[in-house]
Design goal:
The chain has 94 residues and is an alpha+beta fold. The protein has 2 helices and 5 strands, in the order H-E-E-E-E-E-H. It has a 5-stranded antiparallel β-sheet, with helices on one face.
Length: 94
Amino acid sequence: MFVDSDDVEALEALLARHRTLGHLCVKKRGNSLTIVSGDPPHNHARITALGRDIWGLSLPRHTGRWERTPFVGTMEQVIDTLTTDFRFYLDNIP
């Protein structure tokens, strides 16, 4: 399952609900959408399409590798978990 530009726009719209997250942008690759900021890009979080309207959340480790979390659901549910419980992953990195 591959993500498309509609998925990118949907994720950008969910992030835009939070005025303090204006530094973030979304990049797609395969079946994943990565939330990044800066130049060079800094990875903040990744959601992966697991099935029809089901997404999984992964967070970056200090090693640069991704770690899957147990959080799955609709895109809105996963982003709600990210912005509520893991907001510090979305902080602007100087």
